[in-house]
Design a protein that fits this description.
Layout: H1 2-15, H2 26-34, H3 39-54, E1 59-63, H4 68-76, E2 83-87, H5 94-118, H6 129-142, H7 155-177
Helix pairs in contact: 1-5, 3-4, 6-7
Length: 178
């Protein structure tokens, strides 16, 4: 589907009045999380930034929450732009589908760069077994992840690092005890 998305993205870019893609990297997401801001709130913050910048008459938003009213309330505190937020809005509103395609194409491009530079396998998501296997191998070989490559706040990342630390501790005690 990536090739089809790229083709659709080119068509969307030809007819769209405005396109604004906001990238939030792993370090920023981790920093927000340290401040107690979860992904849904972070999405609301970023949606508000986009809405306030573009200032459309009306915006359609794919709510990351099942509880759409809660998300609407959160977002409405950050923008005066009129919007309709629905869970799975990309299935109902073509304009949201178009935005979703553009975002996925951008993610595909970023992942291609990361794959080329670091040899990442899998989707890059923390539940993907191929990605987890790559993370495990990378950590074993390099002892740490490059800054900004993975979310350190992921439970998957934390578990791999904890396991590595435990192994190092076992090696340390083996050397001391003999």
């Amino acid at each position: 589907a990536p090739k089809r998305r790229e083709k659709l993205a080119k068509q969307i870019e030809k007819i769209a009045k405005d396109i604004l893609i906001v990238k939030v990297g792993p370090c920023k997401i981790d920093n927000y999380k340290k401040e107690g801001i979860n992904l849904n709130r972070l999405e609301a913050i970023k949606f508000a930034e986009i809405l306030n910048y573009l200032n459309p008459h009306l915006a359609y938003i794919d709510s990351p929450e099942n509880n759409t009213q809660r998300f609407e309330k959160m977002l409405s505190k950050m923008t005066n732009v009129n919007f309709i937020a629905e869970h799975y809005a990309d299935k109902k509103y073509p304009i949201v589908s178009a935005a979703s395609i553009l975002a996925k194409v951008e993610r595909d491009k970023e992942m291609a760069k990361i794959r080329k530079k670091y040899g990442v396998r899998g989707s890059g998501y923390p539940s993907d077994t191929e990605t987890i296997a790559w993370m495990r191998e990378y950590l074993k070989e390099h002892k740490d992840f490059p800054e900004g490559l993975v979310r350190m706040s992921w439970a998957t990342t934390q578990a791999l690092i904890a396991k590595r630390r435990q192994s190092k501790l076992k090696e340390f005690f083996k050397r001391i005890i003999g």
